[in-house]
Amino acid sequence: MASTETVVKEMKWRNVVTPAGGALWCKVTEPDYKFDKQGRYETSLVLNPNEEATATFIDMIEDYLDKSAKTILETFPERKAKEIKIVKPFHTDYDKDDKETGNVVLKAKSTASFNDEPITISIYDAKGSKLENFKKKIGNGSTIKLYIGFKPYYLNGNIGLSVRLKTLQVIDLKEYVSDDSIFKNETGVEDTFSNNTTVDDEFDF
């Protein structure tokens, strides 16, 4: 019988275009080096499982995971196999009040370099045309599609799917604006706050 490592290694990457969903914490124009010295691109995609295309997509991914997990589990003794956990790639979505929205979230990522060669994530517009030198930051709530690759893994008693971000399509952009970009230069505008008034007095946050 082949080893677990060999079985997993021989499983091929599969590629698919996701249904349209909402962007969440999308970092695809510049690498993030906070947790990865090679740099990382990543985004989460919020999907509504009640939509037909999304339901079909979720069923396809989970069916592939179940079949792959069955093959991987066959490399373990029966007692050990019962202890292994299958980790689905879809997570529950919560709103700002920590309540379930009914949606699910799929996270995809990619390293920003391979063998010291830089990697970039190609961005396409709603018409499917590649956007050259796209530098805008894709804000939460933008409508996007992802082109992803996925492949089974086994790690520390868990079987799941690695989800690799390959390219991204922006269907409806809600550009992210940082706090540093909110205010315009108002040099010369008269100060409307009195000396005895604080910001907290003026606005209720």
Protein model, in words:
Strands 1, 2, 3, 4, 5, 6, 9, 10 and 11 form a nine-stranded mixed beta sheet that branches. A two-stranded antiparallel sheet has the order 7-8. It has one domain: Nucleic acid-binding proteins (OB fold (Dihydrolipoamide Acetyltransferase, E2P)). Residues 191-205 have low confidence and may be disordered. It has four helices and eleven strands, in the order H-E-E-E-H-H-E-E-E-E-E-E-E-E-H. Helices cover 18% and strands 38% of the residues. It is α+β, with helices and mostly antiparallel strands and 205 residues long. Strand 5 and strand 6 (100-111) form a beta hairpin.
Task: Annotate the secondary structure layout.
Elements: H1 4-10, E1 14-17, E2 21-32, E3 40-47, H2 52-73, H3 78-81, E4 85-86, E5 90-94, E6 100-111, E7 113-114, E8 117-118, E9 122-124, E10 143-155, E11 158-172, H4 199-202
Parallel strand pairs: 4-11, 9-11
Antiparallel strand pairs: 1-10, 2-3, 2-10, 3-6, 5-6, 7-8, 10-11
